[in-house]
Amino acid sequence: MMSEANVGQTVDIIVPDIGDAEDVEVIEILVSAGDQVAVDDSLITLESDKASMEVPAASAGVIESINVSVGDQVRSGAVIGKMSVLNTAADEPASNTTTDNSTSTGSDDVTAAERAAGEADSSAAAPSADTATSSVESPATTTVASSTSTTDQSAGQSATPVSTQHAASPTAHISDEKMRKAHASPGVRRYARELGADLSLVSGKGPKGRILKTDIKAYIKKAMEGMSSPYGISGGGASSGTGIPPIPEIDFSKFGDIERVELSRINKLTATNLHRAWLNVPMVTHHDAADITEMEAFRQQLKQEQREADPKVTGLAFHMKTLVATLKAFPRVNSSMSGDGQSLIQKNYYHIGIAVDTPAGLVVPVFRDVDRKSIFELATEMADVSTRARKKRLKPDEMQGASMTISSLGGIGGTAFTPIVNPPEVAILGITRASQQPVWNGDSFEPRLMCPLDLSYDHRVVDGAEAARFMAYYIKTISDIKRLLL
Q1: How far is CA 178 from the centre of its chain?
Q2: Can you tell me the distance from the alpha carbon of 60 to that of 88, in angstroms, rounded to the nearest whole number?
């Protein structure tokens, strides 16, 4: 424990900039009053519909109080507690400090982004929903920030409580834990409890999937209508309200010894997002292969010429540049469908998402303006991003706004797979491990390094012929990387 002489002034612990997330749920409190913390020790964990974020201490000191609880909603600037900071020098103030979380990557450090590349020395990443695990820097300040309360975002008058026995019959199956984790304000939660609605079964139509009172009314109405239908909503069951009959509950213990392993919140969010995409997007996958013999030879040449301090260039950087060139040639693929489904939103920027496997789960950091960056700049950025991804230092806005995503199975193996499109994007490129194969050159067979490619696309936006032309252009470019100079 530190002595009183070492403890300086008391400062507020505030929620730092967390991107465009307005109200984020506190899902875990990692410290309590009296705990001694060092710089960058995590204090609490926040989670939005996009990311899980750890708020670290910006200064060493002692926690005086934490004034939030699990389940509370907070936003940028909200005070979450107080701490006494450690005096590091008599003439230096301990407040208003920030910590540089950047970490250099040595030449022998294999990064998570590099492991996502589709080459022999890489590991694996898989198709990921738009979720992430991240952390944000937490400033300590002597200025007391006003607490922000969560308001009910629903409009209109409150619904009349449904007093029928049928409307309340989901009530006996409601899980307190699932209710607590639902994306809804305290007022909406109270409203749901009054009506006996299980929030874990309610689909939110508010901003970022927030559950509104109107969503609860719609759920109650559908529940009442479905009571006489074998495919209706059943309280506590696995049905998602899509009209699809749920998978029956099975007692596996009667077959032998079992163990129940709870899914993490990120796993649950990923599953929800992927399931939503699968149900809403008519997806088709085009399978092909590219000859990357010349590209790999050039990459190996760069590797030999590089100094020890230079960033490691992986094949993924070449795939990113090739994808941008192909998107420029096929702008329809660099678009998103409008909410009403009546038009396309054409994007004039080229941001590429990369599905990366980390110890905390799959994340999809977005590399912005790839068309303006060199291979070496992308290699440097990938090293930085992968380091911060492993330390949960990615912010939510670093995982948004992709034109298209690349997902690679890397060195695990396989010859093809079907990545799931991540809406609002309309396509995703899958890459599996390249291998030497005999290719007929017109006179004889010769060994060539062939890389399997898989393009999944939203058939409402991209038809089969355009997808085939897209891949033909991509393959032609990646097979002759000099074309990237054109």
Answers
A1: 21
A2: 9
Per DSSP bridges, beta strands 132-135 and 51-56 are parallel
Q: Distance of CA 481 to CAs 19, 40, 318, 370, Å?
A: 37, 43, 8, 16
Count H helices and E strands in the chain, helices first: 10, 21
Q: Which of 298, 291, 295 lies closest to 449 in space, CA to CA?
A: 291
Instruction: Given the residues 166, 286, 287, 459, select the one marked as catalytic.
Output: 459
Q: CA–CA separation, 3 vs 8, rounded Å?
A: 10
Structural element, H or E, at residue 24: strand 24-29
Question: Tokens 């309309």 appear where?
Answer: 426
User: What residue has token string 């929903």?
Assistant: 129
Q: Is the pLDDT score of 142 beyond 50?
A: no
pLDDT digits (tens, 9 = 90+) for 419-439: 999 999 999 999 999 999 999
Mapped onto helix, strand or coil, the DSSP state of residue 9 is strand
Closest alpha carbon to 93 in 66, 63, 62, 59: 59
Report d(CA 483, CA 345) in Å as an integer: 28
Structure tokens at 416: 């093809």
Q: Which residue has the tokens 């008058």?
A: 157
Does the pLDDT of residue 191 top 90, yes or no?
no
Count the alpha carbons within 13 Å of 430 in the hemisphere toward its beta carbon.
Answer: 25
Q: DSSP letter at 359?
A: T
At 326, phi and psi to the nearest 5? -75, -40
CA 470 to chain centre: 26
Q: Is the pLDDT reported for residue 56 higher than 90? A: no
Residue 14, burial from CB neighbour count under 10 angstroms (0-12, 13-18, 19+): buried
Contact 80, 14 (CB under 8 A): yes
Residue for token pair 């192909």 = 326
| Residue pLDDT, tens place only, 467-481 | 999 999 999 999 999
Residue 19 confidence (pLDDT): 66
Q: Per residue, what are the HEC states of 156-180?
A: CCCCCCCCCHHHHCCHHHCCHHHHH
Position 164 scores a pLDDT of 34
pLDDT at 214 over 50: yes
- Is 173 labeled as catalytic in the residue annotation? no
Q: How many CB atoms lie within 10 A of CB 172?
A: 9
- Give the DSSP per-residue string, 234-288: -TTSS--SSSPPPPPP--GGGTS-----PPPHHHHHHHHHHHHHHHHS-EEEEEE
What digits encode the pLDDT tens for the residues 37-51? 888 788 888 876 666
AA letter at 10 = T
Question: Does an H or E element contain 37, and which?
Answer: strand 36-37
Whether residue 458 contacts residue 337, with contact meaning beta carbons closer than 8 Å, is answered with yes
CA distance 327 to 335: 10
